[in-house]
Amino acid sequence: MSGKYIVRQPIRDPEGNTLGHEILYHGANQAFSSDSSTSSAEFAAANTIYSFLTDNSPKVLKGTLNFMTFTTMLLMKKTPRLFDKNDLVIQIDDAVIIHPLSMHLVQQYVKEGYRIAVNDFQFTPRYLSLLDDIHFIKINAKTATELAIRNTVEIAHSMNIKCIVTNIDDPQLYQRAIALGADGLEGPYVADKLTTRAHSSSYIQSNFFQLMVAVTRDEPNVEEIETLIAADASLTYGLLKMVNSAYFALRHRATTITQAIMTLGLGQLKQWIYLLSASNAENETDPGSEEFLKLSFMRANFCSELITHAKNVPISKSEAYLMGMFSTLNYLIDAPLEEILAEVPVADDIKTALLTHEGRCGMLYDLVLSYESADWDRITTLAEELGIPDNMMTSVYFICMENVNTLWEQLTNPYPQQLPPIEEEAPEN
Questions:
Q1: Which domains does the chain have, with CATH numbers?
Q2: Angle at 391 between CA 389 and CA 393, to 5 degrees
Q3: Which DSSP string do the residues of 160-209 spell out, in sequence order?
Q4: Tens of pLDDT along 13-34?
Q5: Among the ranges 1-10, 178-187, 403-412, which has the highest mean pLDDT value?
Q6: Is 9 helix (H, G, I), strand (E, B) or coil?
Q7: What is the pLDDT of residue 47?
């Protein structure tokens, strides 16, 4: 039996910046769609989703603009008012547009300051009559012709309406949508597309890569780790900035590499290795850094939380965390993942899972990827095979999301005092 799942998928602009997220829902007769065959079924579905959102709305909408499709029943239940009007875009589709009561409710929400998006916009009178009340038009890249997309974009822009092209699942559709002037892009390809940020062309010789190898050893050498950090000003800066952030709330600020490592501990340093690399001054203005790091931390958290519910997965909770984190290594270091993992001392089960998706670890990793991409059938199948109750996956997902958002907010907001000076110097050769 299929479970109830809710997942967020990114909507990005042509430069790769995140405009917001679409909330996708599956289960209980598809409460966010218009597939319910009877009003009683839709009512039950509306109650299910209403209850979930009442409990989880802060986690669902925190820190982003969220696009959420509402049925007539959800509009009648005043579900949009669960959310701040600055965080929510009310999406409507054809079933709502042809319903006179729904349109009256939509117009009321517009008067209250909510923004409206129309799914699968069509050139018909009932859609054109909405243009004064909507803020976003969404077009399906798979069903709309190039001419239809171009004309819709032109109409939208002439009325200060933003146009989002959806269902983009390959680079050709992605480039076509950009060329036709889309303001936003959405779909599997957009969700998977990350900015490759090469750390070094000779990455194996880079201090960052050697540091990552050093901290993931079974018995890390603290002196080696200190030497590697001290030899790289950007790593030193990143470590001091991170350890003096609000997240660690130190009574006395760490001013040396030794103090910083003692504060973190090697276990924490292993977990924060990505942030250490990407939090230096050189990368602060990279618009893709935040999205990349949040995805890495989300996968790490999701893997480590799901493994506590999974059966017969032969790695520890901390190893599952590393599996999720290292799944994006090939974006952080511009080299094939197989080549990178050959040098990193992590369990063979993790390497096999990341490279070939085989074994119980591979199934856990695939479950996380399937949830990201809203592959509902695959989620249910993998959860059953791993012995994970599907009725708790959405709650775990949003708990992890909330943890990542909180962590990110605290780690990227250092104390107001000036960052301490770097006291240690690189050792002489």
A1: 5-192 (3.20.20.450), 194-429 (1.10.3210)
A2: 80
A3: T-EEEEE---SHHHHHHHHHTT-SEEESHHHHH------S-TTGGGSHHH
A4: 998 888 999 988 776 434 444 4
A5: 178-187
A6: strand
A7: 64
